[in-house]
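Reviewers of the previous submission asked for a worked example of the structure-prediction workflow described in the proposal, so we include one complete record here. The input consisted solely of the amino acid sequence. No template or homolog information was supplied to the procedure at any stage.
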Amino acid sequence: MNRPVLRPEEPENNAATDGGGRGFLGKFGAGRAAARRIEAAPSIHTKEALLLLQNYEESGQGWFWSTDANGRLTYITDTVAQQMGRSAAALMGASFAELFLPVDSHGERQRTLPFLLTRQSKFDELPLRCAFEGDRWWAVSGRPHFDGGGRFTGYRGSGIDITEQRRSAEDASRLAMYDSLTGLANRFNISKKLDTTLAAFAQQQRSCAIMLLDLDRFKQVNDTLGHPAGDALLKQVAGRLLKIVGDKEMVSRLGGDEFQIILPDVEDRGKLGDLASDIINSLSQPYSVEGSRCIIGASVGVAISPFDGDNSDNLVRNADLALYAAKGNGRGRFAFYSSDLHQAAEDRRALEEDLRDALARGEMALAYQPIVKAKTNVVTGTEALVRWTHPERGPISPALFIPIAEEANLIWALGEWVLRKACEDAARWPGAMRVAVNVSPIQFANPDLPKIVASALASSGLPPEQLELEITESVFLGDSKDTAAMFKALKGLGVRLALDDFGTGYSSLGYLQSAPFDKIKIDQSFVRGATEPGSRNGAIIAAIVALAEALEMETTAEGIESLDQLGLIRKLNVSHVQGYVYSKPVSNDELLGHAETGNWMIEPAGPARQRNDRFQMFRKVGAVHDNYRYTVVMRNLSATGAFIEGIMNVPLGTQFVIDFGEGQLVTATVRRSKNHQQGIEFETSMVSDGNGGLCTRHRVSPYLIAAASQQAGIALPHFTTTSDWAGK
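From that input alone, the workflow returned the following structure tokens.
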């Protein structure tokens, strides 16, 4: 082994005799005193020092190196050379700096080794990564060496292996920045990332969207299968999110079953809505966890900077408010933030308090929508639909108060009342019309449900075969024995069972084979698109019908509103129809008046063709034309147009910019006009807001508003301030 020769005549400030404890002798405790002893007795002490150096190298605790003035190796410990896959002899003359990876390749913020060597600077415990074995790190120290004339002759130094310390530090850093369960960024990490992104994007006038999502029914998995199963499920959720979003650094787990996604440079609400829908659909597909089949769902809230917040606190708060709205409107949905959600949240809290006493105050009632045999137009039954008339606010939509009842643990009492009232009413109907009652997953999970059903039948006198219980696919969460036992108990009472909203959830041929359903209800989302050119919905409906017939089940198509939809449904052999094309829900008194003969027949009536959904409203909006802004009232709205009133005698073909507020602008052309009323067609279709409403695909950035407002002579539509846009 080649070893350096220690010469007693060398100055005390060389690497071997450095009093700082970082040179050769410093590594095993020698200092200036040791150097003086070597000078006093060179033959004995030099030999002893060399033996000590050799022993230290062989112990593996450290190693030594030296170079010439050009940075070429003149000595390196052989064991370290072997760890590099070389021998010490093979490395002689090699560049010392090239033994290590450049600083930029591993993100270290420090002066580079080549820079230090060029400057002939001393350095201590510089962390360097091996170029030949990427997972090994050393802390390297070095001192420049000069001859008697002061000329630089090279370096002498040492190194120690810090691989384990490095790994421990990286593990600690990873734990501080990443979720230990899923490997996603954690709350601290994503919060820093969002702060940095928004600060940079504000200067560059760029948009950034965030999504907050919460898993639906995750608690049931923990409660029924245990926390280890819940952890395994969260890992699968993380994997599905990464597959959809793609960028691991932009997806985080905030804790529990909450996740956040950052989407830089995305403000198109059409694309964001599609992405949110993809996430919800993906996370709602069945999971296999420890041999059990699990089904959950997801709700998503979306906020976009700078429209919905100009800093991370505002943006996250508003995305959370949108998530709250999505969950409140039935779960399994997405919602965009809008400023009116603040008031909606307050209203919802007030409604929850009022709902607790609504039954006792007699504010609840039932309406019945006829279910008609498609070929004969004869009513064979009805679906019971609960209605709430608030003493101050009037009728409250079930889409609003049913989720409130579920979250406030009021659904069991409300569901029992609906069941008993429906049985009581149906027992007095002429003929043998059936009544269908919806059973929520919460009711289905209650082991007392069969007793309540039996009690309702007994007290009303309704024959069991005239009661139909509508159950959604979400009751199959976990595929447990309790589910099978519940089906058996209900079927043992003699009631009929219908699978509701088939095709929108987790449709499985397995449970169709095992669960004793009498009917499949085809969700209206398939019906509404079935008559559109190129739609495959008709083929899907035909397949569902064939499946039901093979299993000797009836089929009901929901939401039929137009004659062309009805024609298609009849052509596809769907057995029953429910929708406005036959009748809206009616009160019990109206039903008795229609069915008094015992044979209620309804002739279908409605528009010839399917139209885009129209939302009735009374809303003031702006209509901008020729640098003048009119205030008009919007009476209804669809994705492609609207009906407005407030401007007299507008010529056909006139173009307006409709200002919905909060930066939502759309160009529209007048297609119908009479006196003060106009029918307008939008140049660009609106998109779903995820909560049953519509919104513009894009919004005008407040950056552009601010810039335009500084240009004199340009008339702008009225906008709220930037702080109002941010929901402050």
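The chain has four domains: 15-163, 178-339, 347-594, 615-725. We consider this example representative of the routine output the project will generate in years two and three.
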